[in-house]
Amino acid sequence: MDVDQLRKENEEKAEEEQERGPIKSDPGSAPVGDAVEDFHNRDALAFGIPAHRAGTGEVQHDAARWAGPQAFRADPGMNNGVDNRHQSWQVESTAMELFAEAVGADQTLFSTNGSTLNVHVALLAVAHPGESVVMARNGHKSAFAALVLSGAMPIYVDPVYDERWQVAHGVEPDELDRVLAAHPEAKAAIMFTPTYYGVSADVKSLAQAAHRHDIPLVTDDAWGLDYSFCSRLPPSALESGADLAIGSVHKTLNGFGQTSVLSTQGDRIDSERLELVFELEQSTSASALLIGSIDAARRQFQREGEELLGAAIDRALLLREAVELIPGLDLLPESVAGGPGAFAFDPTHVSIDVVGLGLTGFSAADWLRDHQRIHVELADHRRIMPLITFADGNENIERLIRALRELAKSHAEADPAPDYDIAAPAELRMETVMLPREAFLGKTEDVPWRQSAGRISAEMICPYPPGIPITAPGERLTEEAVDYLEQIVAMGGMVEGASDESLETFRVVA
Ligand SMILES: Cc1ncc(COP(=O)(O)O)c(C=O)c1O
Domain spanning 425-509 has what CATH number? Predict the structure, then answer.
């Protein structure tokens, strides 16, 4: 058979199929959801995965008891229902193009393994094994894992530490410039902005600094995807000039858990390499339920983002006003923006200092959960942070205010605040003496924690939240780091990533 002839016939067939496909490339459509509906409207039946048959079978699913039968109906196979095996209806690719247009990117990819996957992919795309990247030291643990996966060597740059609030903000552009000048070998700069506490760095100046050194700026803006959809929020990383930006759809828009997007612009990121490394990491059976929720979030926020996110800001401001009147509580104020490392602030991250009640953030969070059935997004050694989103109506806010008043009342007579004298990041900084990949994946041994100072860490140990490792693989451990971790655990913090969660032993390079 003539192969050229066969290829031509297949191409013609694919074109015809695309024309017959179920979707439109129009911002008012949601291609994935439209294709799922079309699958059911056509009375299609797929003898492929998922085995649950997307609501076309006979067996009732146990999980439908709490997830509802619709969750299953919304989850046909991406390549045997939502699209066909050649993907010639271009359902997901069209949805990704529409997303890219909505956020001003040239390309967007959808992850069903959270921003964690996208952070891995970003690092794998920008550095070859053994090459250096300049990375802010306040990265989420996924970035340190990405160093292990990629084999890149980090040159850490310190964010500004705010002594008043004992919290790290963003990296100052001059500091990035200085580190890049000292390290012309660096292949990319990686920044984490906004922080968990809602504080953004000056991304525009950071991008200019990276570009002056002819390298891309990668931003993990997991907490800032909504900035593209509301003019009352800080400028988005892409709008500010980042070459690659990562946003969690489930953190700020209405994607299901684990949904995230990676977007690029310009020509500093090799898009072919990016797509190849993305394919290494993404599941071969990504869920239509998850992918469809990314697509639907884009459509909804493109249409209603100004209104929905604006309402979230208004409600967060109401909460802030109420908190200011509660004795013993202290707010991380909007006025942090403008200070060093803090270019802009997202008021929906309502960080409430509870030191005045003689509590740690950990114990205040536990009290709210046990006595008021209220969970908060973040608790640290001195504050709690309820996150206010577009989904919170007035009732939620009023309930939270009542709960905070009760918290204050119940602790009005409490003993004075315990000693919160914790080390600043500068005191904890350790020297990186080995590639994180070699330290993590090479030969290791466990040593009693008091004997670990001077040894090279083979693990990352992070108080969670915020999930920023205190020790990263490849760093030479110090007494200060060991003391700090012990102090955080004693205060009620959770520690993740340690091979021995009791912290009696540390895993070090053998
Ligand atoms: C800055 C940052 N990057 C990446 C992640 C990982 O995101 P995900 O949990 O969606 O994998 C998080 C999670 O909290 C984060 O805060």
Answer: 3.90.100.10
